[in-house]
Amino acid sequence: MSAFDVAMLAVVVLLAVVVVGAVVVGARTLRQIRTMPSAPLPEDPAFIAEKDRQEQSLAALRSAADEANSTVDVAKSAAAAARAEAAAAKAEANAARAEAKRVLEAARVEADTVLERAHRQAEADAEEVRAAARRSGEREVALLASTTREQAVEVERRAQRMDERERLHTEEVERLAERERQLTAANAALAAREAALAERETALAEAEQQRRRELERIAGLTADAARSELIESIETQAKREAALLVRDIESDARETADQRARHIVVDAIQRVASEQTAESVVSVLHLPGDEMKGRIIGREGRNIRAFESVTGVNLIIDDTPEAVLLSCFDPVRREVGRLTLEKLVLDGRIHPHRIEEVYDLARQEVEQLCQRAAEDALVEVGITEIHPELVSLLGRLRYRTSYGQNVLKHLVETAHIAGIMAAELRLDAPTIKRCAFLHDIGKALTHEVEGSHAIIGADLARKYGESEEVVHAIEAHHNEVPPQTIEAVLTQASDACSGGRPGARRESLEAYVKRLERIEEIAAGKLGVEKVFAMQAGREIRVMVKPDDVDDIGAAVLARDVAKQIEEELTYPGQIRVTVVRESRVTEIAR
């Protein structure tokens, strides 16, 4: 039933209720009229008025009933029209349903068509994807084949290198065997020569005895009598000269005594001062295997980038088997990076987040090691009162080197040398030891602050409350500031003694070779020199001269000139011995 039908039904019901109500009211009024007295007084106005009113009400009810009947008729006609309209609407709805069913069928057919077309397109796309995958697989197979061939070539190349090394080793063994045979022959020849020399010495001794007997016969004195007379004459003259010398020395010693002795000792020690040093900037970490290099690099290099950004240390991975290089000018930061990578390799888990965690642990461990090293050095030297910041900076020198010499150990050694010299000279030993121990404190900040480490160290000492004697000794130990106190001069001398002793430091191969070449050039440039040999790592030089051009006195002069020129032109630790060899050879042919 449509909404219109419901509305019309409601109107009809409402009108029926109104009509029923009007009928009930009319019936009640008629009942009241019948119940009134039968013979009312005609002249009663109230009765007349009531009767008129009731008649009017009855007329009104009749008119209302008539209107209700007409309304019911209109409603019935409207309901009939509504039913007709509803029938038409139902017919239209049936037509619409038929049309919708037709459209639905058409849509279903169209959908089937589209679905079939989509299936065909999907099969075509799948075929293209399979073809692309097949081509990609073929490319991967070709790439793997080329990689395999390259690896085979590399293996063959390594095998060739191993064969070459084996061949060179075999040749070296043969050369050593030949050299051993030559040495055996040379030893045999040397033994024969020693026997001939022994016979010759015996003959010379006999000739010397015969000559002495002839001289004794001519002089009329025996050798012992002549020696006694000569010794007595020389002894008398030596005693007189010694007495005069002793008197002069005692007189001079009384005048200059302690002050002159101090300056002589200090000046003599100061002459061996050496220059400032360079340091190593690369650390090597050995790996358990070459496959670990790939894990250190990570996918697309993310691990090595994370490591370098977190630690500030450059990681160098090359063809060196089972080893990587860590490069950084800050030795403490380089040690933290080395310890971090070592822990990561031992742990096996290498990724950016793990790198940050291990770096924090390694940094704390290195700081503890530095602090402990500085405290041990202070205890060994005997210094107690020092600023905590200076202790931290001293700990950083545990990883600082100078020509291969550890700077913290160098400071301890320098302090001991300075203390011994101060005690010998009767000076303030604790102050001088403090100056010598702190003289290289600036090297802890040379990678962070510009300037000489002597000036940097003096600024640090002044900042943290050290005395002016200590500050001046630090800034003057490399002559950036002229030394003005005995503490500064002794600091220079003890620093030179520690760094210049044999074996304390190493120098670069290039500087070492240049020094040896220059030493040989200096000696070879002199007149009468035939050959020059630099021996014992440049600490001894042997000069072979021509015996016809250089006599014995000239050999001594030549040795002195070469030594003097080396002192003036070269810088070197320790000392260099110059030996001039003048060899006379006489050759005769026995026929």
Automatic annotation (TrEMBL):
User: Where is it localised?
Assistant: Cell membrane
What the entry lists under Pfam families is as follows: HD (PF01966), KH_1 (PF00013), RNase_Y_N (PF12072)
Enumerate the transmembrane spans: 6-27
Q: Which domain of life is it from?
A: Bacteria
UniProt cross-references to InterPro entries, sorted A to Z: HD/PDEase_dom (IPR003607), HD_domain (IPR006674), HDIG_dom (IPR006675), KH_dom (IPR004087), KH_dom_type_1 (IPR004088), KH_dom_type_1_sf (IPR036612), Ribonuclease_Y (IPR017705), RNase_Y_N (IPR022711)
Where's it mainly located?
membrane
Among Gene3D superfamilies, the record links this protein to: Hypothetical protein af1432
Q: Which of UniProt's keywords are assigned here? A: Cell membrane, Coiled coil, Endonuclease, Hydrolase, Membrane, Nuclease, RNA-binding, Transmembrane, Transmembrane helix
Where the record annotates domain HD, the positions are 407-500
Membrane topology recorded in Swiss-Prot or TrEMBL: Single-pass membrane protein
Q: Can you tell me which residues the record assigns to a coiled coil?
A: 51-117, 190-224
Protein EC: 3.1.-.-
Q: What does this protein do?
A: Endoribonuclease that initiates mRNA decay.
**What family classification does the UniProt entry report for this protein?**
Belongs to the RNase Y family.
The protein in question is named Ribonuclease Y
Gene name of the record: rny
